[in-house]
Each structure stands twice: as structure tokens, then as C-alpha cells.
Specification:
The structure holds 2 protein chains of 2 kinds. By secondary structure, chain A is mainly beta. Helices cover 0% and strands 51% of the residues of chain A. In chain A, the strands form 2 sheets. In chain A, strands 2, 4, 5, 6, 9, 10 and 11 form a 7-stranded mixed β-sheet that branches. Chain A has a 4-stranded antiparallel β-sheet with strand order 1-3-8-7, with no helix packed on it. In chain A, strand 5 and strand 6 form a beta hairpin. Chain A is globular, with a radius of gyration of 13 Å. The N and C termini of chain A lie far apart (37 Å). In chain B, strands 2, 4, 5, 9, 10 and 11 form a 6-stranded mixed β-sheet that branches. Chain B has a 5-stranded antiparallel β-sheet with strand order 1-3-8-7-6, with no helix packed on it. The radius of gyration of chain B is 13 Å and the shape is globular. The termini of chain B are far apart. The chains are: A mainly beta, B mainly beta. Chains A and B meet through strand 5, strand 9 and strand 10 of A and strand 4, strand 5 and strand 9 of B.
């Protein structure tokens, strides 16, 4: 069974640009979560999508947005990139609600220069 | 507001030792608790998931226990190996399907 896949693995952008990160959940999982992990810091919850709807959002500005497609894959968009957006972005999936735990992908390392 | 604490923040032990990592939480109304490991710069690997109705889970050399009444979980690693070196994270699942994270324990196993 394929795990949670994220692309790209690494992404380098210039301040002010937009970044798009992608996540494919485990087959059968309907929920996708996005987390930010800045270097040396803990995981910060960004967004939760389930059945195509945004269910919850962390304490991040509106320039962090995303969507979930009918096949349950998801995109995270970060507009007007700032240097402090440089971080490891992790995607996780589960079958609605987390009763069976979360499965994480390997992450996308975003570097803003 | 749920708070999750992991002690110690860092731990260095010789290979072969048995060790215990601790996770405590302030609100006993949890949905489940999950232990993860994270290698430097990598994603998270799920180790064990304990539902709120369970007392412990085992996988190979790992055993995780849960005591909701005291707000504690422990991760026991038997016969530690250098490959066990990583940061171990505890996450509590609340009734809103949110994971509340501990800051992690950085474990170094010396050969």
C-alpha cells in the first residue's frame, strides 16, 4: 500500500513568489492535514480538509490556503512568500477523524530566499 | 486547553539499554494518543497508536502505555540500538480531531 506522498521534495522560491505543495493521501483516507515545522521548532497545525471541505484552520495568515480535490489529494498554496515561511511542510492523512491515527508523508522542504 | 509535555527533552544512553520516554497531558478527555519518531529533516513515522479505551500497545521492541486518569503515557524501548536515535514525539488526539503535540524527546543511542 502506498503511503502519503508529497511533492516536490524540495522547493526554493524567492520572497514574494507563490509556492504550491501537493499531497496524495493513502487510498481510502478522506482527511488531509497540513503542518508547518520550522527548523528546530515543533509542528504547527495549518489546515484540515475532509471530503473536499476545509474543516479547521490553524493560526496562520490568509496567504496560506489550500484545497482538496475529488480524489482527496490536496494542495497547499502559500502566497507572497516571506523568509520565515522557510520550513518543512508535512502532510498527513487519515480516515475522517483520526480514530485510526495519522499517517504522515516525508514532507516538502520549502526554502525562501 | 490541552497541553502535552515530554520529559526528558534529550536523552543519551549506551546501546543495549532499556529506556522510557515520558509524555504527560493536562486534560484526560482524549480521543487517542500516538507516538511518532522523526529523523532529522524527515517526515514522521507512526510507532504506536493507543485508543482512549486501551491501556497499552506493543510493536516489536516498543511498548506504549496510557493512563488517562493520571494524564500520562510512556514509551518503553527495549534493547536500544543506534538506529533508534531520533526525536520521539507524543501527540494527543482530542474530541475535535486535533492533534496536540509534545515538544519531543531527542534520543541518542551511543554505540
Amino acid at each position: 500500500e502506498a503511503g502519503v506522498t508529497q511533492s516536490p521534495t524540495h522547493l526554493i522560491k524567492t520572497r514574494g513568489q507563490q509556492a504550491t505543495l501537493r499531497c496524495s493521501p493513502i487510498s481510502g483516507h478522506t482527511s488531509v492535514y497540513w503542518y508547518q515545522q520550522a527548523l528546530g521548532l515543533g509542528l504547527q497545525f495549518l489546515l484540515w480538509y475532509d471530503e473536499g471541505e476545509e474543516r479547521n484552520r490553524g493560526n496562520f495568515p490568509p496567504r496560506f490556503s489550500g484545497r482538496q480535490f475529488p480524489n482527496y489529494s490536496s494542495e497547499l498554496n502559500v502566497n507572497a512568500l516571506e523568509l520565515e515561511d522557510s520550513a518543512l511542510y508535512l502532510c498527513a492523512s487519515n480516515y475522517r477523524g483520526g480514530a485510526y491515527g495519522y499517517t504522515f508523508g516525508s514532507g516538502t522542504r520549502l526554502t525562501v530566499v | 486547553k490541552q497541553e502535552v509535555t515530554q520529559i526528558p527533552a534529550a536523552l543519551s544512553v549506551p546501546e543495549g539499554e532499556n529506556l522510557v520516554l515520558n509524555c504527560s497531558f493536562t486534560d484526560s478527555a482524549i480521543y487517542n494518543l500516538q507516538w511518532f519518531r522523526q529523523d532529522p529533516g524527515k517526515g514522521l513515522t507512526s510507532l504506536l497508536l493507543i485508543q482512549s479505551s486501551q491501556r497499552e500497545q506493543t510493536s516489536g521492541r516498543l511498548n506504549a502505555s496510557l493512563d488517562k486518569s493520571s494524564g500520562r503515557s510512556t514509551l518503553y524501548i527495549a534493547a536500544s540500538q543506534p538506529g533508534d536515535s531520533a526525536t520521539y514525539l507524543c501527540a494527543v488526539g482530542d474530541s475535535n480531531y486535533q492533534l496536540i503535540w509534545g515538544a519531543g524527546t531527542k534520543l541518542i543511542i551511543k554505540p
